[in-house]
Amino acid sequence: MIRHLRHFIQRHEPPGQALAHLKSGFGAVLAMTGIGGVAVATGLPFLLAPFGATAVLLFGQPKSPLAQPANVLGGYFVAAMIGSLAVWLFPGAWLAAAVAVGLTIAVMLILRVTHPPAGAIPLVAFASHFSLPLLVAVVSAGSALMIAIAVLHHRLPPTQQYPLRLES
């Protein structure tokens, strides 16, 4: 029994350097501060829970394909469009929210813009009843701001390459 359980508790992430981990946490603080500042300045609801998960990828796993700008922007755009459409067609239908999450995942995979935190956006759309333009504006501007902060942040020592460069 213990032999089978060990696969559930074994850590697969390689150990890292404490300074790099602290820098990752600091980057997330900067990004959330920027998002919060935009929220206060505009009065718009920019502090969305999925952005916290995006910060984990952008600052903690910047080499992941899931953290690349095309995935972040594309994933959030797909999710906002599908979530808003589902709310418009089936307001208040919890089953439509579930279908919208599944459809969002499928479309992100098909388009190769998978960004796991974006999978929560259809649920945000159903819970908040944001209009389509507002939801698209918030997730697009918020994710673009986080990417911009990540690009600058990863140029500080210890440096990380972000975004990843295409092989020629």
Structure description:
With 168 residues, this protein is mainly α. 68% of the residues lie in helices and 0% in strands. It is built from seven helices and no strands. It has helices at 2-9, 18-42, 49-60, 69-89, 94-111, 121-128, 132-153.
Which bin fits the share of residues in helices?
Answer: 55-70%
Low-confidence stretches: none
Q: H/E order of the elements? A: HHHHHHH
Mean pLDDT: 94
Total count of helical runs of at least 4 residues: 7
Beta strand count: 0
Question: What is this structure's SSE topology?
Answer:
Blueprint: H1 2-9, H2 18-42, H3 49-60, H4 69-89, H5 94-111, H6 121-128, H7 132-153
Keywords for this entry:
168 residues, globular, mainly alpha
In short:
The chain is an all-alpha fold and 168 residues long.
